[in-house]
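INFO worker-7 received task bundle
INFO bundle size: 2
INFO processing item 0
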Amino acid sequence: MRTKNYNDSELDLFQIVNFFRRQIKTFATIFILVIAIALAYAITRPTTFESKASIIVGERLFFLQQQVQQQQQQLESSDEIAYRYSDDAVIKPIKNTRIIEVSVVAESAEASTERLNNTIRKIIDSHQKILLEKRGEFIGILNSLSENNANKIDLLQLIDNASNSSATRQLNPISTKELRYSGLFLIVFGIACLLGLIFALSAALLKDYIERNKGRQH
């Protein structure tokens, strides 16, 4: 049994080697053609610039904060931010943190920096508005629940300090880098290699099948 399996494996390998000997020109031609087309596309892509910066999302304020989960404390979830500003920038949340990375790609360094600045400012201003609204809600609650001025002042001071410390803010300066070929060269090359192998192997198999059928008919 082992001898038979060994012979079958040897036969399969022999057939594969013979197949590539017969169709190596077809395989190589198709593969090189696909790679050449892909490279021609990649090197014609314009140079672009990518600007990046990170921000930390502020937190909502709760009287019973210890009962609220971390995700619920964010002024706005990372997924919501990514969706709302998807037309302006690429938003990448950092797992298990309130930090998000914001990036913009444009045709010039100045344009990418300006667009990134505008996007970050939109996010920060939006969250600052949420904080102010929340602080106003707290003040309204205090006015309706307590007439004790001393306690009210203490609580207002606590809320004001918390508001300042939990605001959304930018963590690092904007960095900009040049992306030759729009940063697509390696991606296009990788995809081209995969497609080249598939197309070349398919063409070689089809050509080999046709040639062998013709040989049998003769």
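INFO item 0 finished
INFO processing item 1
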Amino acid sequence: MKKNELFLGAIIGGAVTAVAALLLAPKSGDKLREDLGNQADDFKDKVQAISDKTLESLKKQTNDLSNRVKKTTQDIEEEKDELDNLSDDIIIEGNDVQKMVTEDAVEVEETTHLFENN
């Protein structure tokens, strides 16, 4: 059970106990209504405090998650750019090797042709 759930349960349980105690205590109607109103106000304030705290926590978690997603996206973009550059380098080197092999093949063919003619 999470801490907030436990805390909320304790507050609700306390409020129910307080209302029961007020209803069972021998008091006049006006005094009883006043006490119930005070208990209701206290309960409302406690629920509002929990709500505010939970909302603030959710905002912080959302902000943290948003920042992590932005950072991860930035890291992925940087890695993509590096891979694009490496890919371009590999293509250039491959073209250079292909050119060298073609030149060597032409040279071998010319040399072979010279030997065949002699």
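INFO item 1 finished
INFO post-check item 1: The radius of gyration is 40 Å.
INFO post-check item 1: The helical segments are 3-24, 29-117.
INFO worker-7 idle
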